[in-house]
Amino acid sequence: MGATTADVLAYRQIVDEVVLLDIKEGVSEGKSLDMLQASTLTGSLTRIIPSTNDYSLTAGSDVVVITSGVPRKPGMTREELIGVNAGIVKNVVEQVVKHSPNTILVIVSNPMDTMTYLAHQVAGLPQNRIIGMGGALDSARFTIYLAKAIGCSPADLQAVVIGGHGDTTMIPLTRLATYKGIPVSEFLSAETLKQVAADTMVGGATLTKLLGTSAWYAPGAASAAVVESIVKDQKRVIASCVPLNGEYGQKDICLGVPVVIGRNGWEKIIDFKLNAEEQELFNKSAEAVRNMNNVLATLSL
Ligand SMILES: NC(=O)c1ccc[n+]([C@@H]2O[C@H](COP(=O)([O-])OP(=O)(O)OC[C@H]3O[C@@H](n4cnc5c(N)ncnc54)[C@H](O)[C@@H]3O)[C@@H](O)[C@H]2O)c1
Asked: Whose CA is nearest to atom 19 of ligand 1?
């Protein structure tokens, strides 16, 4: 999905230059060559540079999207990836920051909330310069399930998923979802809304079952949307995983909340003023993510 992120960034010319880095010989070269050839047909002028583990080629990057690691297979949870991915993400973050000390990191590798927490511990960057990507994707999935249930265009919906980026930790905010400003509950029964939320929560697992591995088009597009808001200083509100210092009643944790994203990374947390039921779900989500974060201490990283 790192390559798909790069492809969206290049195809839409969101950035002038993109470096694809992979540890495995041939992967970044092959992907870059394929994309370069495509650019003669799409008209994209974005420069695409391959790198097999040579971080010097990434020096001075404005934004680095970290997707390295292993994806889940059918039947696996994102949380089961922690043992392998924590070591990879730690190493990659350290190398990236050495060559791009002023970069903004977008963490994608799973379990994403814990990998974002880890990145904050090891990167030595200001906290606004590390963003976990999960809510952008989960909100896209929520939007599509809602559009299908209502029978409307997804473009006319506003729908946000907060909390953890896990099958049981994400919180699709059905109360705040709107169709052209009107609550979706005016169009859908409570039962249908519950089903939409349930489908959203297992949205990734549904795709993993169909594809045999993790999805990439929507995750790539979601990561590119975060990058676009940064490099174009769009100040878009995107649910993203950021450190909480009392916001949403939590601290010492990175969790998905709506944030304004611009040139300086995540710039501001928006308070959605959760009701008691939503706050309880958020607290439970935090508890599960905190348990996962505690696993980090048991790993020899
Ligand atoms: N946050 C999200 O919304 C989201 C969405 C989709 C996938 N993911 C996660 O993103 C990660 C990547 O998924 P994928 O489907 O692209 O997997 P993939 O296996 O297709 O790609 C991962 C790549 O990482 C490379 N890699 C492994 N170790 C590395 C290292 N030390 N340095 C550099 N590269 C290294 C591998 O060679 C491989 O090419 C997984 O952890 C997956 O669970 C997260």
From this structure: 70
Residue 214: which pLDDT band, with cuts at 50, 70 and 90? Answer: very high
Ranges of H-type helices in 124-270: 135-150, 190-201, 203-211, 217-231
pLDDT tens digits for range 143-161: 999 999 999 999 999 999 9
Task: Judge whether 239 and 139 are in contact, CB under 8 Å.
Answer: yes
Predicted TM-score (pTM) of the model is 0.98
- Mode of pairing for the β-strands spanning 157-158 and 104-107: unpaired
Catalytic annotation present for 165: yes
Measured CA to CA, the distance from residue 197 to residue 83 in angstroms comes to 29
The number of the ligand 1 atom at minimal distance from the alpha carbon of 138 is: 3
Instruction: Tell me which of 70, 90, 207, 238 to substitute to probe ligand 1's pocket, judged by most ligand atoms within 8 Å of the beta carbon.
Output: 70
Q: Are β-strands 251-262 and 236-245 bridged in parallel, bridged antiparallel, or unpaired?
A: antiparallel
Residues in the chain: 301
**Residue 92: strand, helix, or coil:** helix
Q: 80-95 burial string, b = 16+ CB within 10 Å, else e?
A: ebbeebbebbbebbeb
Q: Write out pLDDT tens, residues 256-291.
A: 999 999 999 999 999 999 999 999 999 999 999 999
